């Protein structure tokens, strides 16, 4: 989340869930500015926040000695801090990890957001404006997809708003899988973080224009219809786009039938049935099914699960010979897409000026750490056990920290997350950056050689 026009994160604390998490040692749960100071600043915590890895990611290889490195690159990146009482510090910039570290330690921000890379150092934008020859514009940013669990409120019956449980979380898992598989095909690196109720899928690709961003975002747009109604999917054309067809066959169909149908009890009440029947364009057909279900509420399907039975009946009816209206044949697919396809906040993806919540920062309402998710193991990710600040501090207390250690995070639940970020995201990213930097530099050398030979 963390967009510019969204100054306060709208997440409400899920107190019940919070109380379930027990700190291993006596550190009371909940968010507390003092915990934040320990997390970011205290010598006791010994760098729980991975300043070095975090900054290295945003350098994209430009902090090296290679003559092709752009030394001004990372200094043109905006960092935004939100302090207590919603005091905003926009357009911060840092030239080194230690500069960033001292600033975070000094200010202990409630929120840390990452902005775009600008044409000039954002902290000096006014000076540049006065000199008159430099325009201050965003030039690069990661491609970001925001998925909010609250956008699924019309297809989940267990929770609403910011709340999430293991019955509705799989909706997010499916979105992660669809995005991850499709974006990996483009040979770019994806980092996925969970913080509060938002999953941010961050694609570390730079140099994309707003138009290119919009084109990629549109790739995932199959919805039409109102914001609050169940978003009816319209799969235009007689043949599914290959990407959609693959998503359907590989992921969505089995997820809907084996998971969502039962977990959310999609046919267990008249109201729930109606929601699905509303997606069928033929009214007569829908009311026929409804009559049938009202008639045999208990009798003929008492032994079988009512959800599985009714779904089979609906599919049979839609696919049977006499119901071959042009819209009906595609209807099963459309229902499944409506319930399961990733619901993305397109505006976040399309423009460069939205802010991205930094991984490993702390959610100011839940006190949970914004942790990366491994897309290859996203089925195992449990949002209700994401470490909280008090848990981490409790673990440190219990483990007996060393004041001079750089790696006290190894003694906490952060260990898996930091190791994953380092080895599965950062290292492959830097390797790719190095190769790209070298080939761009060699191409430039070759070009100037050719010019000289003339
Ligand atoms: Zn739920």
UniProtKB/TrEMBL annotation:
Print the keywords alphabetically.
DNA replication, DNA-directed RNA polymerase, Membrane, Metal-binding, Nucleotidyltransferase, Primosome, Transcription, Transferase, Transmembrane, Transmembrane helix
**What is a single Pfam family found in this protein's UniProt entry?**
DNA_primase_S
- Enzyme nomenclature, EC number: 2.7.7.-
Q: Does the keyword Zinc apply?
A: no
Which interval of the chain is the signal sequence? none
What InterPro entries does its record include? DNA_primase_S (IPR002755), DNA_primase_ssu_euk/arc (IPR014052)
Per the UniProt record, which residue ranges are transmembrane? 186-208
GO MF: DNA-directed RNA polymerase activity; metal ion binding
Superkingdom of origin organism? Eukaryota
Query: Which biological process terms from the Gene Ontology are attached to this UniProt entry?
Result: DNA replication, synthesis of primer
| GO cellular component entries | alpha DNA polymerase:primase complex
Q: What class of enzyme is it?
A: transferase
Q: Which PANTHER family match?
A: DNA PRIMASE SMALL SUBUNIT (PTHR10536)
NCBIfam families, A to Z? primase_sml
The entry's family comment says: Belongs to the eukaryotic-type primase small subunit family.
What protein name applies here?
DNA primase
This protein's species is: Paspalum notatum var. saurae
